[in-house]
Structures are given as structure tokens and as C-alpha cells.
Amino acid sequence: MTRLSAELRRDRLIQAALTVIAREGVHGATTRAIVAEAGMSLASFHYVFPSRDRLIHDVIARVLRDQQQVSFESLETAGSPREAVRLGLDAYFELLSREPERELAMFELMHYAMRNPDFGRLPRVQHASYRATARELLEAGAAQVGFAWSRPVDEVARLLVVMVDGMTVAWLADRDDAAASLVMDFIADSLAAMTVPAMQTLSSTAVAR
User: pLDDT tens-digit profile of 110-138?
Assistant: First the structure.
């Protein structure tokens, strides 16, 4: 029998957790259910994760990392602020429509954690992670195209997260791609309206000095 590396075991368990949470909810995502989905043993689970809570935190981190990676890659061809936002949204939506169970699991985690005091600060940490990822993408888009945000980037990141969350819930409910595209156009237009040319920011700074 081929011995799996710790990294491969971790990957399989994270994917299995996403599948079980999306299908059965967090309450059904017991350690035994997750290892059964992964085709692994409890010993393999404890070899890479000290607890189910640690696995859940890593599940959130993995989903955000994958979303961030595809969105960053999309920025390479952007030529305007609106295009930078729209391309990032397109990349996110492509991943969402290909693997909807990932976002189903993320929403299930958020809702379950808000009702369960055992999860403590997880909802706050999860949402803070969303905003941090959004901020990095917004800053990368500005640097790539050559513009600046007219509002504090943390504010823009919060708006982006709220709007994308709404679009995601709506799409998971009706699977209407055309409607999602309209929402993404609205988000791109709204965020592009909160940008200024980078040189304008530099000129304003020079005058202030």
C-alpha cells in the first residue's frame, strides 16, 4: 500500500470536510464522517490535525487561498479599474460555479458558528479573512492598472465582501448565471466609481506638503 505524505493527507481531508459540510451541515461533519469520505482512518486524521476545529480553520484558509489565487491571476490582463474588478469577479464566479459545494460549506460554517458558542470568535475571524483577501486583491488591482481608491481601501473591501456574499447566496439559490452577471456588472461599476488616477493622488499629496 502506498504511504501518503502528510500534505496529501491534509489535502484529502480538507476536500472531504468541504464535501461533508456542504452535504450534511457542520453538525454532520464529524471526524468519523470526514475520514470515511476521504477513505482514510482516524489515525491518519490525527497524524495531520490535532482536532476537528484545526481542520475547520484550515478549510476556511484553503478556500480563501484558492479564491485569491484565481483572482490574482485574472488581474494580469486588466487595463482599467472596472476591468480589474470585473475580471476578478469573473474568476471568482468561475470557481463558484465549478465547485459550489465549497461556498455552501463556507456559509454553513458561518451560520453554524454564529449559533454555537463553542466556536467562539470563528465568525469574526472568518469574515475578517474575507476582508483581508479582498483588500489584497483591491490593492493588487490598483497597482496593476495604475489607479488609487478614493475611499479607504478597508471600506471598499467591506463593500466588496458584502456584495459578493449577496451575489453568491442568490446564485446558490437559483443558479441563474445571467442574473449573477448583472450583479457583477453592478459591483464593477460601483467600485470603479470609487477610483482616481494614481497621478492625481500623487499630485494631491504634493500640494498638501
Answer: 887 777 776 667 778 778 888 998 999 99
Rounded Cα distance, 161 and 165, in Å: 6
Q: Tell whether 205 is covered by a domain.
A: no
* Residue 1: inside a domain: no
pTM, 2 dp:
0.79
Strands (DSSP E) found in the chain = 147-149, 195-197
Calculate the average pLDDT of the chain.
Answer: 87
Q: Which domain holds residue 52?
A: 6-199
Distant-in-sequence contacts of 126-133, Cβ < 8 A, 24+ apart: 126/60, 127/161, 129/60, 129/61, 129/64, 130/64, 130/161, 130/165, 131/157, 131/158, 131/161, 132/157, 133/64, 133/67, 133/68
What's the structural domain count of the chain?
Answer: 1
